[in-house]
Fold Claudin.
Amino acid sequence: MVSSALQITGLLIGGIGVIGTFAVTGMPQWRVSAFIENNIIVFETIWEGLWMHCIRQANIRMQCKVYDSMLALSPDLQASRGLMCAGSVLSFLAFIIAIIGMKCTRCAQSSWQAKDCIILTAGLLFILSGAVELIPVCWVANTIISDFYNPIVNVAQKRELGEALYLGWVAAFCLIAAGAIFCCFCRCCEKTRSYGHSAPTHYCTHNQRLHRKTESSYSKSQYV
């Protein structure tokens, strides 16, 4: 009962991480315009994402345009495209594998050893997808902070951390937490099964000793 609840908890946390990863990949709020110093154009907000940039005017109208060329993006956003797509695929694959490896799902000719291998694979994929997602999120955040405090960069070109970055950190944490839960669950199951297999061996050896003692007593009585 406890193991099933632990698996369901890991699957729910992993599902939240998968949904968050897909949302972060498509959101345009990676870089948000900063209203500092002489930048008094506060009625217009600029969003820059991996696939498009948007301009929102006074919370009324929003216009978005897809980037004309990938070469027009900065190096961090170019790399973030590939890494986020890879993280999305890995997280979704880990979620499907975790569903297959759960105890409540039954597959043809599936043993508990096969289930443990599947759960362990899902856990490792969750951790890998979370690490892959952390790289672009932290990279873009570091670039934004460096440009913000760089006096050479023009004030109009400075940006702030967008909502997509914060959501990316949460999603990556959920993926890594789900992977840790599945890996720890598999480790605990191996220990309990090893203890369970070792106990009958001692019991059998104890019975064999009793049987030998009774045989020796019978032989002595027969001799007398």
